[in-house]
Specification:
alpha/beta, 8 helices, about 20% strand, five-stranded parallel beta sheet, four-stranded antiparallel beta sheet, about 230 residues, about 40% helix
């Protein structure tokens, strides 16, 4: 079954917590050039709030955050998720601090400065080691296979644009939960360094609904966002 999705691979989502704006911009641009989707947080508490509702593929944490020490944030997330790949990026290279960072739950510890190609390779290594994630998501007659990057309704394949595919994948992974417009902006557009108007988002949702037809039970939650529900 051929579609406009053929050959398109959804890149891994990386969240980077770093309060130094210049470092954050340099690293995020390098990771985007390598094909990753990147979202940057300058505050540890903001990252905790986001992690309470969404989970990236890889988490990069700086040690020196203004409101939340890196190891503390790392330990908090590790208690919530034993599988998420976590890397600490820091200027601290004292052996005792390296041990503290790793014992807080980090899978890897990289000291600044570092070569971007080395950082990319180490992230790829963490992703290879991560347990395989569920690749098939269903909601009523809709099926989304993230391994094959295919969508079907019943027995019929549905051709989606990459943007429509990412929106559907976000809704399917969060089936039954409200996905806010802010989360959609941050996860899909801002993660790629792009920005979009609310009107463009509304149009994208309308087109996705039209392609999925009556099988799509995507509810608008006024003033909040959208929720994908199983049909009754």
């Amino acid at each position: 079954m051929e579609s406009c999705l053929s050959g398109w691979v959804m890149s891994a989502i990386v969240w980077y917590i770093e309060d130094d704006a210049d470092v954050a911009e340099q690293v995020s641009e390098g990771l985007r050039s390598a094909g990753f989707q990147v979202r940057v947080f300058s505050q540890g508490l903001d990252a905790r709030s986001a992690l309470a509702t969404m989970t990236p593929d890889v988490l990069l944490i700086d040690w020196n955050l203004p409101d939340d020490a890196g190891p503390s944030l790392c330990a908090w997330q590790r208690r919530r998720d034993a599988q998420l790949p976590i890397m600490m990026l820091t200027v601290r290279d004292d052996p005792e601090e390296v041990v503290e960072g790793l014992r807080s739950g980090a899978d890897d510890y990289v000291t600044k400065p570092f070569a971007m190609n080395v950082l990319v390779a180490r992230i790829e290594t963490l992703l290879r080691r991560a347990p395989a994630q569920t690749s098939l998501f269903t909601c009523g007659e809709i099926a989304l296979d993230t391994g094959a990057h295919m969508v079907s309704v019943g027995c019929e394949s549905v051709a989606l644009t990459p943007l429509e595919y990412e929106l559907l994948a976000l809704f399917m992974r969060n089936k039954g939960r409200i996905v806010s417009r802010d989360v959609m902006h941050a996860t899909i557009w801002e993660a790629r360094g792009d920005y979009v108007s609310d009107n463009a988002l509304t149009v994208a949702i309308k087109r996705l609904r039209a392609k999925l037809g009556t099988a799509c039970h995507l509810r608008t939650v006024r003033s909040f966002g959208y929720r994908l529900e199983e049909p009754l």
